[in-house]
Amino acid sequence: MSIRENLNQLLKTLPAEVKLVAVSKTKPVGDIAEAYSCGQRDFGENKAQEMASKHAVLPQDIKWHFIGHLQTNKIKYLAPFVEMIHSVDSFKLLAEIDKAAEKNDRIIKCLLQFHIAVEETKFGLSLEEAVEFLESQEYKELRHVEICGVMGMATFTDNQLQISDEFMSLRKNFNFLKSRYFNENNSFREISMGMSDDFQIAVDCGSTIVRIGSTIFGERNYFKSN
Ligand SMILES: *Cc1c(COP(=O)(O)O)cnc(C)c1O
Predict the structure, then answer these.
(1) pLDDT tens digits along 109-123
(2) Is the CB–ligand 1 distance for residue 212 below 6 Å?
(3) Positive or negative CA dihedral for 41, 47, 48, 53?
C-alpha cells in the first residue's frame, strides 16, 4: 500500500481528538512530502541533525516533534523551529532547552518522558524525579519552556495486558501531576503514547498523541539508512 493509503486507513481508525505524529525518522524527504500532500502536518524525528536538515527543505508549516533521546549539545539544531520535545528526561535537559529557547526568543513546548516499560534501555523519569524537579526553585525560574504533558513507551511485548498496565501507569502519572501542579494550566493536557504495534491499546488508555512510523511509511531499514 502507498503512504497515502496507509495514512488514510490509519486516520479512519483514530478518534478525531487524538493527534497523529507521523514518525518519519530514517525516511527520505520524498516520503514526508507525500504524507504532507495528504494533509498530514505533524511529523516526528529522533535525531536532531536529521530533523534540522529535513526542516530546511520541506514546507515551513510542518510541525516537527522531537521524540528521541536528546543530548544537550544537539538542542541548538532544533531550538529555532521545533514544535514540541516529547523526550525530556532530566531537569538538566529542560534547563538547557530553556536557555536555547531564550536565545531564539521563543517558548518551547515539552513533555516529560516517563519510564513505564520493564526494559532498562528505555529512557525516562520516575514520578519521584519529576516531583523533585517540579518543586525546585530552579524549575520555577524557567521562562522559555512550557510543560504540556507526559510521554512514555511501553515494553515491546505481545502481552496486551502488560502494555495496557504500563499505559495506565503513565496516565496515572499525568493525572497526579495535573492535579498537583498544573490544575490551572490548560496547556498541560497531552499524553503521548502509542506506536504502530500498540496505538489501539494506547488510545483505549487515554492517549492524546500517537507517534506512528512504520504503519505509514513501511518498515525502517536501519542497516541501509543509518
Ligand atoms: C520510532 C519511534 C516511534 C514510531 O515507531 P513505529 O513502531 O514505527 O510506529 C514512536 N515513538 C518513538 C519514541 C520512536 O522512537
Answers:
(1) 999 999 999 877 668
(2) yes
(3) negative
Residue 186: Cβ-neighbour burial (10 angstroms; 0-12, 13-18, 19+): exposed
| Per-residue cell: 130 | 519529576
Burial of 80 (0-12, 13-18, 19+ CB in 10 A): middle
Residue of 65, 195, 217, 225 best suited for mutating to test ligand 1, as the one with most atoms within 8 Å of CB: 195
C-alpha–C-alpha distance, residues 81 and 192, integer Å: 20
Joined together, the cell numbers standing for residue 119 give 526494559
**55-86, pLDDT tens digit by residue?**
999 999 999 999 999 999 999 999 999 999 99
Handedness of CA 147, 68, 116, 171 (dihedral sign): positive
Element (DSSP H or E) covering residue 92: helix 91-103
38 in Cβ contact with 5 (< 8 Å): no
Q: How many CB atoms lie within 10 A of CB 223?
A: 6
Residue nearest to atom 12 of ligand 1 (CA): 67
CA of 141 to the centre of ligand 1 (A): 33
Cα 157 from Cα 122, distance rounded (Å): 14
- pTM metric for this prediction: 0.96
